[in-house]
UniProtKB/TrEMBL annotation:
Enzyme class: isomerase
Any one Gene Ontology BP term: chorismate metabolic process
Gene3D superfamilies hit by this protein: Aldolase class I, Chorismate mutase
Listed PANTHER family: PHOSPHO-2-DEHYDRO-3-DEOXYHEPTONATE ALDOLASE, PROTEIN AROA(G)
Keywords: Transferase
Chorismate mutase domain segment(s): 267-358
Molecular function per GO: chorismate mutase activity; transferase activity
Enzyme Commission (EC) number: 5.4.99.5
Protein name from the UniProt record: chorismate mutase
């Protein structure tokens, strides 16, 4: 991944006065649907019109896309609206067909990125294409796997590369469809600051009501653009209905987002400060999430102690935890005083949870 700055020329050459915007339906359903949405988006901030035509589904029997026919519809979108087009490719056959139909931007989905075999097959099919190719993070939180997929494409000769952050799968139920794991995206940016990074709030949230907040966090973290699934009738979409917004809603989101520009030293300072504060917000949210999980475990301990009629406070166990955490804190640059105060507060909250269970 050396000389990553050379990869960013496609984004620099666009000379946009706003973040890159990719929008369109999760799935191309009918020619009429594809064209109607495109015409609703053509005079907005949208730079690329997206539509999935091959839809890898978790289980068989679900709508899996219209296939190559959808490429004809995307050609009509370009002819009628002048918008550039993009779609997902998952194998060499998809790549061949997409290139033959002059699709402007291709993205590789999370289920493909997870497999080095698939990524190599796609890289070989793409060769030294001038088309823009974006790589979504793999479904599992593995930064090396994500970067490895991009490296395969670069080695094959793909000139215009970028990445899409779409969140990561988890067995645990959270408010997100795919947990963002923002720290992985931040580490990605730190390693390769000149490789364009696009955020996909639709797949992160799985909920149209959360799209704006995730978009704003992404921009605060200096993401280069957004990919938002858009449908004129999202409630009746053939796939991922809950996460798509209407074109009108997308336009409103774009108006309401705070975009920080760097045109002078003061603006640069404010942008950097906003980015660091956004990183703190991410970590703070993770702290609350972890503390919530810890207290759920405490509830379980309280239930067990109630069954066995055991006292809530176990001094030996508490002293062991405190000693271990003080040493661990010191290794992370945290003072003993801070660690003591923090874990005493956590311990008291844990006692409160257990007493509530025991006395219930």
């Amino acid at each position: 991944m050396e000389n990553s700055k050379q990869m960013r020329t496609w984004l620099d050459d666009m000379k946009l006065d706003h973040p890159l915007v990719i929008a369109g339906p999760c799935s191309a359903e009918t020619e009429e649907q594809v064209l109607k949405i495109a015409h609703q988006l053509k005079d907005t901030d949208v730079n690329y019109y997206r539509a999935g035509i091959w839809k890898p589904r978790t289980r068989p029997g679900m709508f899996e896309g219209v296939g190559a026919l959808g490429l004809k519809w995307l050609q009509k979108v370009k002819a009628e609206t002048g918008m550039k087009t993009c779609t997902e490719v998952a194998n060499a056959a998809h790549v061949k067909l997409a290139l033959e139909h002059d699709i402007d931007l291709l993205w590789i989905g999370a289920r493909s990125t997870v497999s080095p075999f698939i990524m190599q097959e796609i890289a070989d099919a793409l060769g030294e294409t001038d088309k823009i190719v974006l790589v979504k993070n793999p479904v599992n939180p593995d930064l090396a796997l994500w970067l490895g997929g991009i490296e395969r494409l670069k080695t094959a000769g793909v000139k215009n590369l970028g990445a899409i952050h779409r969140g990561f799968s988890t067995y645990e139920k959270t408010k997100y469809r795919n947990i963002p794991e923002w720290q992985i995206a931040i580490e990605f940016q730190n390693k390769f600051p000149d490789l364009p990074l696009i955020n996909d709030p639709s797949h992160i949230t799985g909920n149209r009501e959360m799209i704006f907040d995730v978009c704003q966090t992404a921009l605060d973290l200096n993401f280069d653009g957004l990919m938002v699934e858009t449908h004129f009738d999202p409630e009746n979409a053939w796939s991922d209905a809950a996460q798509q917004v209407t074109p009108e809603k997308l336009i409103q989101i774009m108006r309401d987002l705070k975009i920080r520009k760097e045109s002078d030293p003061e603006a640069e300072y404010n942008s950097e400060l906003s980015n660091l504060r956004a990183q703190i917000d991410v970590v703070d949210a993770q702290l609350i999430e972890m503390l919530g999980k810890r207290m759920k475990i405490s509830d379980g301990i309280g239930g067990l102690k109630k069954q066995k009629n055991v006292a809530v406070l176990q001094s030996n166990r508490w002293n062991q935890i405190l000693g271990a955490m003080i040493l661990e804190g010191e290794s992370k640059g945290l003072s003993e005083e801070f660690v003591l105060k923090m874990f005493k507060a956590i311990h008291q909250e844990s006692i409160n949870h257990q007493e509530k269970v025991i006395n219930s």
